[in-house]
Amino acid sequence: MIYEGTIYRPPSEADSLLVQVTVGCSWNKCAFCGMYKDKKYRVRSLEEVKADLWSATPYRGSFQRVFLCDGDAFALPTPFLTEVLEEIRRLFPDLDGVRIYASARNVLAKEPRELAALTKLGVDMAYLGLESGSDKVLAAVNKGITRQEMIDAAAALRGARIKQSVSIISGLGGETLSKEHILETADALNQMQPEYLGMLVLHEGGDAGLYHFEGESFRLPPSRLVLAETRLLLERLELNSCYFTSAHVSNYFHVKGSLPRDKRRLLEQIGGALDSVVTI
Ligand code: SF4
Q: Is any atom of ligand 1 closer than 6 Å to the C-beta of 103?
């Protein structure tokens, strides 16, 4: 298996076979994201991908899923993805599923019939970075897509029975847009109805400090405000069936549980943490 540069994958894909089908991210312009800044986007050749898959056949049985890297492998043209998925099926017929990073942009670029075909070939979950449901925040961080496009992409995935694991970033609105960021994010998520939701926290680094909103420089929210954002988000979420985590390495305080069942417990835990925070 040959990997080019640093490989990122969601924590939940730690046991999956990681197959790099693209190098970098086809967008690569989000102000807060430095993951692929050192890579120039390109699609790997089918021959390279197939050779990688073949090289993993001695380990058949030691993984249950394949995760397609890099940043937004869903950007691949459907015929290319189809060939990759068919090869995965041929070599590893007993897999539970294939998962992939996707952006709303590349989901919406595919016809419903293409999405349905990908489901049939094993794609069962897409990892989607919503980051924020606020158009002001999305524009400020140069996400390149709107809140409505995120909601439309979620509907398209649901129509194709592809589960969504959505990530959002606490602190992305800075201090100025904190409340709008969270209220709009909760509202967008209530329309998207993801099966999994991960809340990360913005930290110093990347280019986060470079953007301005209405003349004000971005100010990273203090830890107390980040916790308050988590509480406000949970209060506003109305999700039918979703596993929520804020247990990423970036989080100040780790909570996880099923919504709506564990909502009260999660709120109590965050309330306790807020009571104990003086200032960090
Ligand atoms: S689309 Fe995703 S991977 Fe690409 S730059 Fe934005 S956050 Fe990073």
A: yes
